[in-house]
Homoserine O-succinyltransferase (Shewanella salipaludis), 315 residues
Amino acid sequence: MPVRIPDNLPAAEVLESENIFVMSETRAANQDIRPMRVLILNLMPNKIETETQLLRLLGNTPLQVGVDLLRIHDKASRHTSIDHMNNFYRDFEEVRHNNYDGLIITGAPLGQVEFEDVSYWDHIREIIDWSQRHVTSVLFLCWAAHAGLFHLYGLNRTVLEKKRSGVYNHKRTSEHFPLLRGFDDEFFAPHSRFAEMSLTQLRQHPDLQVLAESDQAGAYLVLSKNNRNLFVMGHPEYHKSTLNDEYHRDLAAGLAPQIPQNYYPGDDAAKPPVARWHSHGSLLISNWLNYYVYQLTPYDLSDMTAITPWESKHS
């Protein structure tokens, strides 16, 4: 089934060239099917690149997914045209009274900034609080995962001396969660961040459960026990070239970055990188959409009280 996107969204051409099943809103409006409604709060600098990465994953499921794109403010973006933002993105006031099946909050290049010093921190908190009443399930990625854990559960991160960048091996901590169905015992996922959450604090928190972790990169998948919030510490949505692009961007900026670990053959940045996480990323998003969104969300989105906890519905 397709992911439904706005007419003329630039990502459509790229996705269609990769045989990702996407459908314009005009075409989808003629089908008598209720699609899942997913809101994406895109905090990344390059909006179009991130849109394409996320839509690539959302389009690889058997569900029709309608997507709304949300911006955190209406200030001009250095990497995305104002026309694109005005044509395809909504402001929070436009969606405040809506309910959604799912919300994805992306990462942001703010790993070395204290949360309270982020210019839009109050707005982020407002949207997170809103999501707990208006969204069936929320997927937090990278910086957003740290921000969500801090705001909702009072857990703070530790800023690292050097950026954690590379592709790392992970292992499941349990076999009995729907989110992990089809996962191998070990799998790879990319990370690109300046901070890390304490595994000990995450394991000890009564409202959280760590589902996957890495000896090198720490916690990866953390799920709230009410199944409403999924925190992903890495970037399963990244394209094969994204870490390479970030590395060369930082080199050009004179930041002397370390070579992303376990990414280039022989750690030689002159060689084309190897992608080892795409199948995992697709399965992760597919399982999230199926078990934590589609299986739980009410048919009538105006009635969020109809959400049935996973344990009782599938026990």
Q: What stands out?
A: The domain at 3-240+276-313 is CATH 3.40.50.880 (Rossmann fold). DSSP finds eleven helices and twelve strands in the chain.
